[in-house]
Amino acid sequence: MLDACGAASAEDLFAHLPDAVRLRRPLDLEPGISEYEIADYFRARAGENADGYASFLGAGVYRHYRPVLVDAVVSRGEFLTSYTPYQAEISQGTLTAIFEFQTLICQLTGMDVANASMYDGSTAVPEAAMMAARITGRHRVLAARSVHPEYREALRTYARHQGMPVEEFDYAKDSGAFDLDDLERKIDGETAAVIVQSPNFFGVIDDVGAAAEIAHARGALLIMVFTEAVSLGILAPPAGADIVAGELQSFAISPSYGGPYAGIIATRDQFVRQMPGRLVGQTVDTRGNRAFCLTLSTREQHIRREKATSNICTNQALIALMATVFMTVYGKEGLRELALQNVAKARYLAGKLQTVFTGKCFNEFVVRTGDPESINKALLKKKIVGGLPLGRFYPELADSMLICATEMTRRADMDALSDALRPRLAAEEMA
Amino acid sequence: MIRKVRTHPSQNEALLFECSSPGKRAWQLPELDVPAVDAAEALGAANVRGEIPGFPEVSEVEAIRHFTRLSSWNYSIDHGMYPLGSCTMKYNPRINEVVARMEGLAWAHPYQPESLAQGAMEVMARLESALAEITGMDAVTLQPAAGAQGELTGILLIRALLEKRGNPRRRILIPDSAHGTNPASAAIAGYTVENVKSTDAGVLDLEALARAADGDVAALMVTNPNTLGVFEANIAQAAEILHAKGAMLYMDGANMNALVGIARPGDFGVDVMHLNLHKTFSTPHGGGGPGAGPVAVKKALEPYLPTPRLKRVRGKWAWDFKRARSIGRVRAFYGNFGVTVRALAYILAHGGPGLRNATVDAVLNAVYIRKRLEPFFDLPYPSPNMHEVVFSDDRQAKLGVRTGDIAKRLIDYGFHPYTVSFPMIVHGALMIEPTETESKLELDLFIDAMISIAKEVETDPELVKHAPHSTRTSRVDEVAAARKPVLRWKPA
Amino acid sequence: MYPENFRYSKEHEWVLVEGGIGTIGITDHAQQELGDIVYVDLPKPGTRVEQGRSLGSVESVKAVSDVFAPVSGEVTAINPALADAPEKLNADPHGDAWLVKIRLSAPGELEDLMTAADYESFIGAEK
Lengths: 431, 492, 127
Hints:
The complex is a heterotrimer of chains A (431), B (492) and C (127).
Chain A: H1 35-48, E1 54-55, H2 68-74, H3 77-80, H4 92-109, E2 113-114, H5 121-136, E3 140-144, H6 149-159, E4 166-169, H7 180-186, E5 191-197, H8 208-217, E6 221-226, E7 243-247, E8 263-267, E9 280-284, E10 290-294, H9 301-304, H10 317-352, E11 364-368, H11 372-381, E12 384-385, E13 388-389, E14 400-404, H12 411-430
Parallel strand pairs in A: 1-12, 3-4, 3-5, 5-6, 6-7
Antiparallel strand pairs in A: 2-8, 7-8, 9-10, 11-14, 13-14
Chain B: H1 16-19, H2 39-43, H3 60-71, H4 94-100, H5 103-106, H6 118-135, E1 139-141, H7 147-164, E2 171-175, H8 181-188, E3 192-196, H9 206-212, E4 217-223, H10 235-244, E5 248-252, E6 272-274, E7 295-297, E8 309-313, E9 316-320, H11 337-373, E10 389-392, H12 394-397, H13 403-412, E11 419-420, E12 429-432, H14 440-459, H15 461-465, H16 478-483
Parallel strand pairs in B: 2-3, 2-4, 4-5, 5-6
Antiparallel strand pairs in B: 1-7, 6-7, 8-9, 10-12, 11-12
Helix pairs in contact in B: 4-11, 6-11, 7-8, 11-14
Chain C: E1 7-8, E2 13-18, E3 21-26, H1 28-34, E4 37-41, E5 48-49, E6 54-60, E7 64-68, E8 73-78, H2 88-91, E9 100-104, H3 116-126
Antiparallel strand pairs in C: 1-2, 2-3, 3-9, 4-6, 5-8, 6-7, 8-9
């Protein structure tokens, strides 16, 4: 090959690089290792993480069972090792699966149209806010404090240089639902979008329809966020939402220390051209057979460049496929049953603990424990990872933690948690 | 002659919704070990939905057959060469999939206590330091979810530093050969984009740069090697011009597969860059994601990196959330950790010398294709190429056949097409990137196919213009799809 | 090919003025360059447009092209047929597929535009 290239040595291939830019030493990395050693290295790292612990963590990332069919499908090289489906003739597998995904998300959310997925829920939110600003021609965004705190942080980062002020409205201290009076006070004629989450960060099911009425009365759009997709198996789809921005991690996507996940944006038909991200559409081939292709691409960066609806280049195809297989496996009846099991488990556990909010919950809730950090330390000795201490995000809830139970949470572990918390709760009450 | 493929039966398959029938199920749940609840009572009657109209109802075997049949309609790297220029479609080692699924890694919750996440944090720290060594930069963040988000992060970092120095400035310069994400990302960061023309040789025009780079320019975003596969030999001088004006040099690392172990951006003046782990570091594209777009920076930009950062406290890893100058988060949690694991596995497998060898092979493969195909296709920019080569369809266009047609004909020969019509500075571009993955055997099959098509263009152009002929789906009507968008299935 | 009673811009728009109202469209040359048109984005009636500024866009599958106002004024009507049938722009760009009507605020601007003969030699030279 070197002969054909007219090169005497591999080094000749780089002779045209200026000497000053060349690295004249080996990279300071260890020599390569074998497959067996790689597995060994990562097994050791995996062992340093939590292993054999019961966990009550949720807060945007949920422990749900992953049906084995999911990995059987996504491990197929045809899905795993293909590129974005630009060449429709040899990408109908991915394109068809994405079309099914878009349909499933519409059915689940009750919206007209959904894109091929976003990076995750946290980035779907700023994308939805920018979309609302384009549609309304307004720039102010009003987000509920009960939207996931890290999603709001991502929103602020994106909004900062877009001339998009982000303000927040409070939650009601008794119910944990958002405070409609505070929303009424803060919304004005410059508000492009009101952003609410349901079930919200505290696990409370919020009245999205009421927020939508207030938003629409002032000419703003309502963006509904969800982090717990399984809730949509039993909860009514968001009434009055104009854009739904959510996270699908619950649908057979491993927690994987925070990613990769898949987000969604769904909306009404009339807003489709302001939507970010990839879209697959149905068409025919030259023989008249049904076929699918990427479509409405003129919204995107590779054509519209700096005027694009987003800088996003691709979707999370393989992760969206995990969610598609999950929805296929559970289906109409199974997703409802799964959701109900989550409700039952959370009800059982909440009944044994001192919950802070009165609002109805799906599978997580806030418990006042006093000093959650030290309680969690004590729980670790019993091989229990407790709930998320809320002080980091909500200073006024520094004495509380967010606790989650899913279909994978065993009754014995819930009993152990409540037993461990009970003496403390009793002590708190006496004090 | 077509040597690589023959046709074989391909199963038809309806959409999921069309295969469903009531009562079929693929799911199982254990018996509840707590009392069952009444949905209306537990959640409030108004909050409870009825059944989801149209949602699937299929059996387990129907589910697996459905997705298996769909999968058979895809081409993939596992089938053969995937020479998409700028996309670096290299083999995705299966060990990476195995280690990413190990329970302690795959089931790690982002909020689990740091004391129980040391393994995950160690993996991230080790990848950060390996990427810093490979790029010659001082610090790396793994937070950005993909290349485009890495670009946005990088530009926000530049903005933050310039703001601190008193003026964020208003313009970002971008060469006309750049990827579309570059201007889109700059716009989200609040900058106006100004295009800079390339020279006749297809590289950065230093004089044009010097004219454009005034006190209002924040940065130049450049891909190196550029989208022609040509190394920007003047890159260090470009950096000097920018730095003299208080501006920065951003490098799009999409083409880093040409440089690993050979040259380091940190050594030629780059201030900030992103990497695509799904390109250079072998993590699977998965039909369009997930990827990961780590950002590497010089010391001056380190204080602005997204929160949180890894730090060492009393011999343990910890997350540092208290970073006053940070641009904030660009997403929830810490990044696409599962992709991080795969990229580190790739780096461990190769080691320093192996990574450099991969670069050499990638460049050798591209130069070999260039030399073998030069007699048959026009090469508009004759500078030496690195990991990819860009031809033009000028010669074939005279006979009425365009780059898109040649690409479609390549499918009949058993290959995925190259990148079509990009970069835009080449008329009718054929952008070919073989990567180090391909053997001489596969390269020769590809080259023979390209030569055979070049001859077909002369003898039977219609054959090429109506390709592909062998696929289960022929050319699709993209115009109809865009005029009357059908974006979801609905019952008839 | 190019009607004598139209005036043409360098950005390939045409205008026909009748009683102070200008009917505006894109030229046959423009539609040929774009290829199959799949979407037309037009301003709302009542919008004020300025000569040389974008008043909307037309899209093919892989390109977006701004439509620049050949004259200044207020949009009085948009062509309702194009929303559902953008392909009309390919079939009849100088007739049925007009884009907008504008009440001219500066009729003198017509002097800046080309006659049919000038436009034909302009696109001849552009090739």
